Amino acid sequence: MKLRRPIIAVIMLLAFGAARLPFEERLSTELRTAHFHLARLDLDMREQLGQMGFLAALSGIRAPVADAFYLLAYAAWENVQWGRMKLDYDVVTSLQPRCELYWQTAGWQMAYNASAAAINDRNQPREALRLKAQREYFKLGEDYLLHGITNNPDKPTIYNDLGMLYRDKLKEHCKASEIYRIYAKLPGALAYGERFSAYELAQCPGHEQEAYARLVELYNRGEKEHLPTLLKWITILQEKLNIPADKRVHMPPQEIITIPGDSKFNKTPAKP
Amino acid sequence: MNALPTATRHQVFSPARIAAIASNTLLELIRLKVFYFMLIFGLIVIGVSPFLAKLTFQEQFQVLKDGALGAMTIFTWLLAVLSTAMLLPKDIEDRTLYTILAKPVPRFEYLLGKLVGVLLLLFVAISLMTALFVVVLKLKEVSAIWEVTRTASPGALQEQIDSIRAHTFTLNLIPGIIFIYLEASLCASLTLLISTFASSSIFTIMISVVIFIIGHVQPIAREYLLASHGVSAATKIWLSLVSLLIPDLTALSLVDDIAAGTAVSLILFSKIAALGSIYIAVYFLVGYFVFSTKEL
User: Chain A within 8 Å of B273 (Cβ-Cβ)?
Assistant: First the structure.
């Protein structure tokens, strides 16, 4: 075979390459817009994955490599190695940023398991330091969930977890309310999102009026929305906002009304 | 006087001849017992389950999907490269090539028949793997649903069943499997092109492996080339060569994200499928261009 043919073939391939280059560049942008190829594969990642793992991740099998590290993180959790576990979850979430399960698990492990271990740490006699460590783990959990939302703004489950973290652990009710509000608007979100947002807003200082309006709006939707927690918050806010008796939407049975964290409004209704 | 029977006119292009060569290639490859890899695939898909027993259903399904789709990617690619790299050298060694080309079979049809045979083999392989994958996932789904039916409260039961179903085999995974097939087909076409001028099968396989790896980082070179200002001429030449000669395999390598739940729109799917098909066609045509005058 004359040598000319392979050379012409190479020129043909170069021409094809030049023709496809702009199309591929546009396609690449479109793929990123559609949330593909968001994985971060840099030198830090290479160090953590090792040579073979990095090569495997580069060769189009990122997901199984991420799973392997996910199982390692699980093993680290079983062995109570929180630092190791965090490193493994960093790898997992960097390799598969579109898998909400990984963000949720990483956030949960940090904010709930690691923080519980920190507060119950028998090797640390000073409570202040145990509380500080606990708080730091809450924040690590929050970090995972916030990054998870950045990478998966379309998936409701991470918003739900973050809302729960703000509500139950960090006690940041204003943030919890806002997160639940966004959650409720996403496709696939469960019906409680809107209610939870209103409950949390009721505990957000300075937003009682808005919270009351949202709770009343939910109440007016009908019997199925007349849930105990909703009624409780309506009752509390009616008291707190001094809503005139004729404008109150719900009259509770005679019982002790307790406003969490607000002793000024705690009172026992007068007997008729 | 009776007229002589009219001789069948030789057709310049005959799909029947291509089909004959393709089916023969497929049979030859099947006789090489290439489907033994299915045993390994089966072991991965079924054998991995006991190790996942501690995980939640959602985690088990995710690991199973990732592992199975990863194994499908690797096995179809290996099958594509190894079987294609052997085609021409084996036909030359067995002298089958000379027998075929001595007949009125154009080289174009011979080469196309060979490629179609490999593509059929890949199709059979990926269909078998998909079938096994779906069966295992569905069995696990049934087992998971049975488990929650026993343990979940009646109010939460339907929600949990829906959640389990959403995490097993869904139609969203099908584009991912089609992309695996397209990527393997592209690699087969490229391997065929390399084997038209390669001196040995080993050389062909090595080059194909290197291109597969570089193909997954090609976008980095392309982006750097398009954005680079003030880089040295040597760097620019190197980046240009990588960007122009090596295929962008990341465009087809979407199965990881699809397994994580990212959906592909129909427009995007069409564009990617078109790109993959164009790659296959161009590599085949360039391969034919080299093979058409090759001294055998």
Answer: no
